[in-house]
């Protein structure tokens, strides 16, 4: 049974409408007729009507004000408005505030029956509906890949969801994310104040999917206007991005609407504005452009990193980011690009035997907007570039030490002196030299001196062995002989006799 109240300041209208309702069928019962909204409000708690049919223009309290009071009171009654032909702007506002329907005076019985059947069906469904089950089904259809579902499962879910009045009328999907995130229930409260039936479903990465009814009197820009209105209602300082789908009817279109809302959200995500909404769907970036961006990484960035040139490397990343922003790459394309970047850099690090601390991969969904994502990617690459640069610097330090030893092997070579030459600590230089060359600095000095000694022993037969020792840095003849034999297996004299 549908319990109905009629509110109109004209008695003739009240009585006539009450009579028509009784004629419409036994499922409909008029539980009250009132000359003003204030009279009804005094009786709301006792009557608990399912439907209020109210004149939109009345003295003292009009239909819009009555709707507001009903919402404030927390009563679940649905509202339909009566209007004349010249009250169109009132009707539009009433529908925006959540009125389920409007009736023109004089009321046509067929139109009234259609309204009553719709509200009765909706009310019966709501009474028997498990809200949690409906939420789960909506979430399942919105968040699942339709192509991976069996046709039977898809049809079963759609059949159950199509019982929802919201999906039996026109609707659009908004996909939104706001930062900082609103407390639980706050968005619901904000929307309760302005719209009637709608659903808010948690999606992913802090985003919410909103199913919004689109009324008969709404125009093509209504969805965008509602999205803008929603952003304007957010608390001061809240940042927001909203993606908008086209308008659909029926649950089987939910996956398509969700796809469009995602694409639009990703478009809005690029905006530098504090709050932005978009209904711009996009085409996949041309394969040639994606390959060009990959070549930029492979042929320009990696060589710059391997040369230890962090400045040019960051400049190349900035070019890659500029092109990606210009093309408005989808999140999927950005993920692929970042994965390629990570893989190529990881291979380059491996080739250089460089080990750096693991960092979280930079993927777009983890960041509030394009600017935050781009900055994170720059930091990520800069950290790796620094590792390459440090490695190159260390390689140069080792090469400088080796060259210095070649030029000064005849002198006393202390570790402290060598370390100062390349601006490193003695202990770090020792460790670095052993890591890079596989031998200690002392062993390298010995090998250079012995090589020079062997050269002199072969070429200059007039030099005494102790003189050769002095020329390669060994003032003590006994020590020279000991080191030479340990290195070559022969004394200096034995070696000279062998090669003479």
UniProtKB/TrEMBL annotation:
The lineage of its organism: Bacteria, Bacillati, Bacillota, Bacilli, Bacillales. This is Response regulator. Pfam families: HTH_18, Response_reg. SUPFAM superfamilies: CheY-like, Homeodomain-like. Keywords: DNA-binding, Phosphoprotein, Transcription, Transcription regulation. PANTHER family: ARAC-FAMILY TRANSCRIPTIONAL REGULATOR, HTH-TYPE TRANSCRIPTIONAL ACTIVATOR RHAS. The keyword rRNA-binding does not apply. The modification 4-aspartylphosphate is found at residue 55. Residues 3-120 form the Response regulatory domain. InterPro entries: CheY-like_superfamily, Homeodomain-like_sf, HTH_AraC, Sig_transdc_resp-reg_receiver, Tscrpt_reg_AraC-type_HTH. It comes from Paenibacillus protaetiae. It comes from the Bacteria. Residues 399-498 form the HTH araC/xylS-type domain. The keyword Transcription applies. One of its GO terms (biological process) is phosphorelay signal transduction system. GO terms for molecular function: DNA-binding transcription factor activity; sequence-specific DNA binding.
């Amino acid at each position: 049974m549908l319990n109905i109240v009629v509110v109109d300041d004209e008695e003739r209208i009240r009585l006539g409408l009450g009579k028509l309702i009784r004629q419409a069928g036994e499922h409909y019962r008029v539980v009250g007729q009132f000359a003003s909204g204030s009279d009804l409000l005094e009786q709301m708690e006792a009557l608990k009507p399912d439907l209020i049919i109210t004149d939109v223009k009345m003295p003292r309290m009009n239909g819009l004000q009555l709707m507001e009071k009903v919402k404030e009171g927390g009563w679940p009654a649905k509202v339909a408005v009566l209007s004349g032909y010249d009250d169109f702007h009132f009707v539009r506002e009433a529908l925006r505030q959540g009125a389920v329907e409007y009736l023109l005076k004089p009321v046509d019985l067929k139109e009234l029956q259609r309204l009553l059947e719709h509200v009765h069906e909706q009310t019966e469904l709501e009474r028997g509906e498990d809200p949690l089950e409906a939420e789960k089904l909506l979430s399942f259809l919105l968040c699942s890949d339709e192509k991976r579902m069996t046709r039977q499962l898809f049809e079963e879910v759609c059949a159950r969801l199509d019982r929802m009045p919201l999906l039996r009328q026109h609707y659009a999907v908004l996909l939104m994310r706001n930062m900082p995130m609103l407390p639980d229930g706050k968005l619901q409260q904000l929307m309760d104040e302005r719209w009637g039936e709608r659903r808010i479903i948690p999606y992913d990465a802090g985003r919410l999917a909103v199913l919004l009814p689109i009324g008969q009197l709404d125009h093509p820009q209504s969805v965008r206007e509602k999205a803008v209105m929603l952003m304007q209602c957010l608390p001061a300082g809240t940042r927001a991005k909203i993606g908008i789908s086209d308008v659909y009817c029926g649950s089987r279109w939910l996956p398509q609407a969700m796809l469009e809302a995602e694409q639009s959200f990703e478009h809005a995500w690029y905006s530098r504005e504090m709050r932005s909404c978009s209904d711009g769907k996009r085409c996949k970036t041309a394969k040639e452009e994606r390959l060009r961006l990959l070549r930029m990484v492979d042929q320009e960035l990696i060589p710059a990193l391997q040369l230890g040139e962090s400045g040019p490397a960051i400049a190349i990343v900035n070019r890659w980011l500029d092109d990606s922003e210009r093309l408005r790459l989808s999140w999927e394309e950005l993920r692929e690009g970042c994965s390629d970047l990570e893989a190529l850099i990881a291979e380059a690090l491996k080739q250089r035997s460089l080990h750096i601390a693991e960092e979280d991969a930079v993927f777009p969904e983890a960041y509030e907007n394009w600017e935050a994502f781009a900055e994170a990617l720059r930091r990520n690459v800069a950290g790796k570039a620094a590792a390459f640069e440090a490695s190159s610097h260390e390689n140069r330090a080792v090469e400088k030490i080796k060259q210095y030893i070649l030029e000064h092997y005849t002198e006393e070579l202390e570790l402290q002196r060598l370390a100062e030459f390349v601006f490193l600590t003695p202990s770090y230089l020792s460790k670095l030299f052993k890591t890079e060359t596989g031998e200690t600095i002392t062993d390298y000095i010995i090998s250079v001196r012995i090589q020079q000694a062997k050269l002199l022993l072969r070429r200059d037969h007039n030099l005494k062995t102790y003189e050769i020792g002095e020329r390669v840095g060994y003032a003590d003849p006994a020590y020279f002989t000991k080191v030479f034999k340990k290195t070559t297996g022969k004394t200096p004299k034995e070696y000279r006799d062998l090669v003479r």
